[in-house]
Write a structure and sequence with these properties.
13 helices, alpha/beta, seven-stranded parallel beta sheet, Rossmann fold, globular, 335 residues
Length: 335
């Protein structure tokens, strides 16, 4: 299959492109490089620009011919940033996604796999988060991701011949790099837990934000899993796409480890794997933070046979190895 990957020069998008390539498929990358690295995309046909640039999409399809599907990863993703700048998030994540989907329909690219987010579950009272639960997004970012889902579902359910079909894969908390270290999280710093731990030091003290959530130790509960397992899930979904969407035209499912880890437990695991001692102080929850939960992954497993191949410790070790060995990190510091 020949698959368009929007945001394919970014962290997760580049891992998906690599997994497609490894499985014998042909990724085509579309990325503005606002949140990506050219080095991640240069192995594949690469088009630099905005997903809402209709003329660019026209040139892409003219150059690449018919495409068998698209994985839509391009988005802004930082929760506190979305609280501070909600209009920008709605513009980038919702308005431009509608333009992209219109271009895909125009060029008869009818299989769309959307990068969803577990943030749509918000302050659910359920520790185990199922696709059948009622979404309750707690931040502008999360609401834009849910609106993307509604948009894709409505387009898939519209009557008429030649309509598109869609799958939303709601990611929980991926971490780590590609298994061959060809790509990984290139940004230094950031608000995600693993980035904050990696950058912990005298000049960057670690603050454990949020200690009074209704969890077993008061810290947020998350579902962390290896990003390489997430990338492989996309390949399996694309390979099973037609059978999954044959009856309803649209499906939504979770991707995660299926087990919950609190922030304190994650810090303990990080200390075991890294041999580093993390001295931290506590602080209030950040705007948009929620207690969280972990994924019910039965639907993805049943429909594709997917199983996580890596443990939490494997994922942390991968993140540490990427931090040590990747020359891209030096380039990111200097650029």
């Amino acid at each position: 299959m020949k698959i368009l990957v929007t945001g394919g020069a970014g962290y997760i998008g580049s891992l998906i492109a690599g997994a497609l390539d490894k499985a014998g498929h042909e990724p085509v990358i579309l990325d503005s490089l606002r949140g990506g690295r050219r080095e991640f995309a240069e192995r594949y046909p690469f088009y630099q620009g905005d997903i809402a640039d209709e003329s660019l999409l026209d040139r892409l399809f003219e150059g690449e011919g018919p495409l068998d599907g698209a994985v839509h990863c391009a988005a802004l993703t930082i929760v506190p940033e979305s609280v501070a700048n909600p209009g920008e998030y709605y513009e980038e994540n919702v308005v431009k996604t509608l333009s992209l989907f219109s271009s895909l329909q125009k060029h008869q690219c009818r299989r769309i796999l959307l990068s969803g987010s577990a943030s749509v579950y918000g302050n659910s009272r359920d520790a185990v988060l199922s696709e059948d639960g009622i979404p309750c997004p707690g931040s502008p970012y999360a609401r834009t991701k849910l609106m993307q889902e509604f948009l894709l579902e409505d387009l898939c359910l519209a009557p008429g011949e030649g309509g598109i079909r869609g799958i939303t894969l709601r990611y929980f908390n991926p971490l780590g790099a590609a298994e061959d270290l060809s790509s990984g999280p290139w940004r230094r710093g950031g608000s995600h837990l693993i980035a904050r731990l990696l950058n912990h030091g005298p000049e960057s003290p670690f603050v454990l934000t949020g200690t009074d959530f209704p969890t077993r130790d008061g810290t947020g509960l998350r579902d962390y899993f290896h990003a390489a397992d997430l990338a492989r899930a996309h390949v399996l979904l694309l390979e099973s796409f037609d059978s999954i969407t044959a009856e309803t035209g649209y499906a939504v499912m979770n991707a995660g480890s299926g087990r919950g880890v609190t922030v304190k437990e994650f810090i303990d695991a990080f200390e075991r794997v890294s041999g580093r001692r993390i001295d931290y102080r506590t602080g209030p929850a950040r705007p948009g933070d929620v207690a969280g939960g972990y994924a019910h992954t039965g639907r993805l497993r049943a429909l594709t046979g997917w199983e996580p191949r890596h443990s939490l410790e494997d994922a942390i070790e991968s993140a540490l190895l990427w931090e040590i060995t990747s020359p891209l990190l030096l380039k990111a510091q200097l650029s």
